[in-house]
Amino acid sequence: MSAPTTPVLQVRDLVVEYEVHRSSSERVQAVRGVSFDVHAGEAVALVGESGSGKSTTAHAVVGLLPGGGRVVGGSVRLHGGELVGLGAKAWQQVRGARIGLVPQDPGIALNPVTRIGDQVAEVLRIHGRVRRAAAAQQAVEILRSVGLSDPEARARQYPHELSGGMRQRVLIGIALALEPALVIADEPTSALDVTVQRRVLDLLDDLTSRTGSAVLFITHDLAVAADRADRVVVMKDGEIVEQGLTAQVLGAPRHPYTRSLLAAAPQLSVRERVADPAPPVGETPLLDVLSVSKAFRLPGGRTVQAVDDVSVSIPRGGAFGLVGESGSGKSTVARLVLQLTSPDSGTVLLDGAPVSDAAGRAVLRRRSQLVHQNPFASLDPRFTVAKIIDEPLRSHRVGSRSQRRDRVDELLEQVALGAAYATRRPGELSGGQRQRVAIARALALEPDLLVLDEPTSALDVSVQAQILALLDRLRRERDLTYLFISHDLAVVRQVADRVGVLHDGRLVEVGPTADVFDDPHDPYTAELVGAIPGHRADVFTDTLERSTR
């Protein structure tokens, strides 16, 4: 691509500080000496782990640093005009009109008590582009332009009535409504399924190419960067460690940190991500799910068939991956397995015994445990780590107080944290550390079965790799059986011996993981595999293969 000589965005020697405590003068530098450009029609990806400074850099560019944060050095220029030091009134003329922002979480970014159409129209009215009467109709046209079906009806709905992908399309429409010179997309698809993610990114590509906007992507997903970015900027500990054309950075990374990110990224075309052979799997099923179905009644008397005649068998020591998009029925199957919801028909057996009666459920509670998707939401913020892990032991009256204390220390060692973490609270831990605590709690009663519901989807790739390695080690050491639920097929490939693909509540394909992914027979499975980010970037695939040899 031939880029214009004058960049749309020019960041030079940017330094951002945060105050450590309001009562203290101590400050910490979150961004140190960051410099990069973004040209018209170009997409630049800022990549790195949580805490690398990429989101802080983006927030500094758009003047949205949180309280306690401030730019203390450097320059941020938009079409040559300095943004650092702008007052609140001047920023109102920049945001929305000249810089559009697509935030990460549409559930937070959209006002839950305001109709979708009114939220889209607001940006038009604030900047005086149209009169109030015309804003409503133009909002409908914007919703139509981002591919929402029946945009007139969508405009009258509230955010909770739309799917995650639909809400993200609304945010893209808002960000691009005034055709800004620069669009900042801050992890715009990290919470979306792969097929929805691809459609949303295709839409963003299409709209920005039409308007000629420059795009600054913020992402920890190198596969997305490989597919969508012209250039990549790699950040670590607030500094840029490497930047350049995507093919150069991902094809021949110079910095060890870039190489470590590449090595940790799950990718379907890397056939042997776990070097050790799979643990031996027994022949006797530990879990049998036999023709279970579940329907839910909706307002207005309608019903939706969430699970339709699903059968799954997992041998002792096995790992079964259940994949599909949001709404496919994965989490409902998990709830049926754990008897958190009763099936309308069908049976769940644990070691050949039904778990539907009171005695069966009591056994199930002891021998199976759930690891949730969001470790922060699943851990009580008021409890110490020790109390969190000790809770199931106390509930089941296992051991004396001193024995439980020893058990907590043992579990912390097993998940590679150590007893020093026992007195901390969830707010003092990173996402990966919190998930290790959640796994330790799940292991407290020495269960046979772990149901893992999207256990790594909220984690950076390197932390995700650590958690997957931990789960693999625990499975080997403790002869655990896994039901692993995920929309990320690349992750499932690393974990599961067999996989089942759910679509609209029905299992459309089941088989050995490699067979299903390498030679999918059902069109829906083929669509899921084809939507995995990174497939469009051969250089990314080649680099990963070299890094794992």
- Beta-strand percentage range: 15-25%
CATH topology of the domain at 285-518: Rossmann fold
Q: What is the CATH H-level superfamily of the domain at 285-518?
A: P-loop containing nucleotide triphosphate hydrolases
Helical run tally: 22
| Major β-sheet profile | 6 strands, mixed
CATH architecture level-2 label of the domain at 285-518: 3-Layer(aba) Sandwich
Task: Trace the largest sheet across and list its strands.
Answer: 6-7-8-3-9-10
Describe the structure.
Helices cover 39% and strands 25% of the residues. By secondary structure, it is of the alpha/beta class. Among the domains are: 42-53 and 88-113 and 158-264, P-loop containing nucleotide triphosphate hydrolases (Rossmann fold), CATH 3.40.50; 285-518, Rossmann fold (3-Layer(aba) Sandwich). Strands 6-7-8-3-9-10 form a 6-stranded mixed beta sheet, with helices on both faces. A 6-stranded mixed beta sheet has the order 16-17-18-13-19-20, with helices on both faces. A hairpin with a 5-residue loop joins β11 and β12 (303-315). The longest helix has 18 residues, at 194-211. The chain is globular and about 70 Å long. The model is unreliable at 268-276 (pLDDT under 50).
